[in-house]
Amino acid sequence: MKDKETPDIKALGKRRKRILKVLLMVSSAYMLFFLFMILTIYYLDIGYDITRLLQLSILQIVSLGCGMYLLFILIALMLHASYVRGKRRIEESMRPKPVFYRGKRLYTFTYPPGARGGVYAKTLMDVDDRTAILLRYRIVGPEEIWEDLLP
Q1: Taking all residues of the chain, what is their mean pLDDT, rounded to a whole number?
Q2: Hey, which end of the chain has fewer CB within 10 Å, N or C?
């Protein structure tokens, strides 16, 4: 069924990718901010002036970052689950539904295979109490019908 992907499946995938890109950019920006904080405090000997401007301690900044990453992971998992569930639902709706005739499962065979249009002879055969076969044989092709009708 992968070759019959509908625009709905593609739209779900695009939406998921767009949201994940935004989450990745925000988490990367936070990581750069946190690395900048560590560099300024410990290596550039600026001290805790930056944390005083933010009115947050290092522990609070780390806790905020861990909470943010946890939230992002949960959002990514929910997006993936909704994408898989939506894809499965769409694929199930695209599957052909079984056809029943008089309470029996009906299998249809057409000769020539894949033929469309024209006049067909139909034969219905019972196989057992649960199964029936419908044989369709093309007698007159669509070209022959239109040849007679067109001048």
Answers
A1: 81
A2: C
Tokens for 84, please give them.
């898989």
Question: Peptide bond preceding 112: is omega within 30 degrees of 0, i.e. cis?
Answer: yes
Same domain, 6 and 63: yes
pLDDT on residue 132: 92
Q: Which of the pair, 148 or 44, is modelled with greater confidence?
A: 44
26-38 tens-digit pLDDT: 888 888 888 887 7
Question: Cα separation of 111 and 135, whole Å?
Answer: 8
Number of domains in the chain: 2
* Residue 134: strand, helix, or coil: strand
In this structure, are residues 110 and 97 in contact, taking their beta carbons and an 8 Å threshold?
Answer: no
Indicate the SS3 state at residue 118. Answer: coil
Range of the domain at 16: 2-94
* 90 and 117 co-located in one domain: no
Residue 92 to residue 69: CA distance in whole angstroms: 34
Q: Which two tokens stand for residue 58?
A: 């290092």
